[in-house]
Design goal:
single chain, about 425 residues, alpha/beta, Aspartate Aminotransferase, domain 2, Aspartate Aminotransferase, domain 1, seven-stranded mixed β-sheet, three-stranded antiparallel β-sheet
Length: about 425
């Protein structure tokens, strides 16, 4: 009986150690995802969590859909598989990252390494604090004026799409925020000449959204605040870490992670340290940049698992050669897709001015608008999902963030050409 009990326990332990869910995200295909015990990496790393993780075997991309969602968006396959391997027992510690204390040594290593790798990617100097927050970029719409302005201070906003418009309207509750340029009359298809911006000479900051997720408009360069004591602030949610950025040009950069560097639930803020410590008295403690920075993003329980995933993504971007190499890949993907649109003799149309087209979010319409629903449905049948445009503008939108493989864009372009040929 004792031998039988021991054998049962051993079998159960093996079952837990080798557990891998056989997911089939595409119901039109039979599940093919499986693992043999011989291919499972051995987790022999100690609980100090300082050694390099074991290599994670890859699965065929055919087992996954090409997800063109604007966010939450596709993540690198290698990151998902690494997280899967760590999910039950992180680095041999006997716990999942979702279970461990945010005050423990394991998570302390995770969050510090994530910050260090991000600093390496963007060459962030010690003059800036990096903080991991909650509430999405939308919460920063309020946190920004609360931390940097008094109620009577002015702030300038360049409104190039829905998100910068929302940011300005929220800021108006806490300071004298003003829209100094709006692309709304042109349906948010342009970015203004910086020389034409009528800035307030007393503005505390100049705010932009570096990439408008909905409308597909991206800043290729950045304006300079007129007031020499002012700063430039950018919401970089949908092109964060897609290319190199000179952080020193900004007083603050903030980004929701769920586009390019992680899952939903964590927001990353990069704030110049000398700007912190003068928040309005009404500022909630959770929105105070200094409080968050002084407590190393641990004033309360942070979104631990989301931060862990961001850390894996930062590792992946560094392994690719950094953001210079990442940008080259993104330029190639975007060029292929825009060339297909522009070369379709008007069958597909991108309304955005060519000089400011986004590398990340590509909106387009079909000349025969009645075909758009059919296009989206047929693409889904071919394993390409989330191509429907935002509900506020309609049409089609392909979000091709860092983790979208070149093969996904090539398959979409091939489908576009085939669809056009079938609908002359």
């Amino acid at each position: 009986m004792a031998a039988a009990t021991a054998a049962t326990a051993t079998a159960a332990g093996t079952q837990h150690a080798l557990f891998r869910p056989s997911l089939n995200p595409n119901p039109l295909r039979s599940p093919t995802f499986s693992r043999s015990p011989s291919k499972i990496p051995s987790l022999s790393i100690s609980c100090t969590a300082v050694r390099s993780p074991p290599a994670t075997p890859s699965i065929a991309t055919k087992d996954r859909l090409f997800n063109f969602a604007a966010g939450p968006a596709t993540l690198p396959e290698s990151v998902i598989l690494k997280a899967q391997a760590d999910l039950f027992n992180y680095q041999g510690c006997g716990m999942s990252v979702m279970e461990m204390s945010h005050r423990g040594k394991e998570f302390d290593f995770i969050i510090k390494k994530a910050e260090s790798d991000l600093r390496s990617l963007l060459s962030i100097s010690s003059d800036y604090a990096v903080i991991f927050l909650q509430g999405g970029a939308t919460t920063q719409f309020a946190a920004l004026p609360l931390n940097l302005c008094s109620p009577d201070d002015s702030a300038d906003y360049v409104v190039t799409g829905s998100w910068s418009d929302k940011a300005c309207k929220e800021a108006q509750k806490f300071c004298k925020a003003k829209t100094i340029w709006s692309g709304k009359p042109d349906k948010y298809t342009k970015i203004p000449s910086f020389d034409s911006l009528e800035q307030n000479s007393n503005a505390k900051y100049l705010h932009i959204c570096s990439n408008e997720t909905i409308h597909g408009v991206e800043f290729k360069d950045y304006p300079t605040p007129l007031n020499e004591n002012s700063i430039l602030v950018a919401d970089m949610s949908s092109n964060f870490c897609s290319k190199p950025v000179d952080v020193s040009k900004f007083g603050m950069i903030y980004a929701g992670a769920q586009k390019n560097v992680g899952p939903s639930g964590v927001t990353i803020a990069i704030v110049r340290k000398d700007l912190m410590g003068s928040s309005q008295p009404i500022t909630p403690v959770m929105l105070d940049f200094k409080t968050q920075a002084d407590n190393a993003s641990l004033y309360n329980t942070p979104p631990c698992f989301a931060i862990y995933i961001c850390g894996l993504v930062f590792e992946d971007l560094l392994q690719q050669g950094g953001l210079v190499e990442v940008e080259k890949k993104n330029v190639k993907k975007a060029s292929i897709l825009y060339d297909a649109i522009d070369g379709s003799d008007g069958f597909y149309v991108c309304p955005v001015e060519k000089s400011v087209r986004s590398m990340m979010n590509v909106p387009f319409t079909l000349k025969k608008s009645e075909l758009e629903k059919k296009f989206i449905e047929e693409a889904a049948l071919e394993g390409m999902v989330q191509l429907k445009g935002h509900r506020s503008v309609g049409g089609v939108r392909a979000s091709i963030y860092n983790a979208m493989p070149l093969a996904g864009v090539e398959k979409l372009v091939a489908f576009m050409k085939d669809f056009q040929a079938r609908h002359p």
